[in-house]
Amino acid sequence: MLFLAIWSGGCSATKLTDVLTTDQETLQRIRAMNLLEHNAALAPIESQIAKQKIADEETERLMEVDTKALAIRMVEVFRANNVFKKIERISPKDNSQKALIKESRSKKATLLMRVTLKKARVYSLGGNDAALGNTAMWLMLGIPSLWGADISYGVEIVAEVSFLDVASSPDFATLLHSYEYTFKGEGGMNYLERSGSLAVIVMPPQYCPDDLDKVKETVLPLAQEQFTLKLAEQTKKELGRERVSEPR
Description:
The protein contains eight helices and seven strands. The protein has about 250 residues and is of the alpha/beta class. Strands 1, 2, 3, 4, 5, 6 and 7 form a seven-stranded mixed beta sheet that branches. Strand 6 and strand 7 form a beta hairpin. Helix 1 packs antiparallel against helix 6 and helix 4 crosses helix 8. The longest helix is centred in the C-terminal third of the chain and has 30 residues, at about 210-240. The chain starts with a helix and ends in a 7-residue tail after the last helix.
């Protein structure tokens, strides 16, 4: 019996919540990368997530992202990790590109940063290696292994990022660089994190109905944090390769 309990716990897959947790080594690596000598203005983040379609509601959910809260956090993360010499949010009444450029210049920015969320979703991958041990425990001991991360899920956020040079000319702004960034993480979740079904009384946890909305609520804050941090890293890499104009 003890062997089964140890086996069930030992076979547990890497947890998605652990995958979405920042380690100090990653933070140190990002902070050690070269500072970009620019003053950046972050435009209001746009979202096209609601326009996306998913193939199966049973295995996939779109994630609603609070773009204003994400922009606030993005500025905090970019500052903490020394991405730009300076970065601040702008929010003119008119959200046209002309108004954004004008507002950027009034803030003495050299770059206008625009972010558009193309996709944000959570999806189920089904059972993993921990499922067998959990089933054996349930069948032989009648004990549901509620702590084993026996069902795997993934989270994906895709964004289009662009930078406009607003300092080199007072008359126009040129597109300095743009790229599409995809953040993706996958890992297991235990029964208590993914479901609340009483069916666990009569069947092994991995066969019980899952609540993808519950999974989404658990992983969305963590996924947004990791997405923002990795976006900071990718921005340093992308603009570090570009020959950008010197700030005025």
